[in-house]
Amino acid sequence: MSTDHSAARERLAALPADTRVAVVTGASSGIGEATARELAAQGFHVVVGARRLDRLEALAQEIGGTALPLDVTDADSCAAFCAAVPRLHVLVNNAGGAKGTTTVMDADEDQWRWMWETNVLGTLRMVRGLMPVLISTGDGLVVTITSVAAFETYDKGSGYTSAKHAQAVLHRTLRGEFLGEPVRFTEIAPGMVETEFSLVRFDGDDDKASSVYQGLTPMVAQDIAEIVGFAASRPSHVNLDQIVVKPRDQHSATRAHRR
Question: Staple 26 to which of 32, 128, 138, 208, CB 3.0 to 4.6 Å?
Answer without folding.
Answer: 32
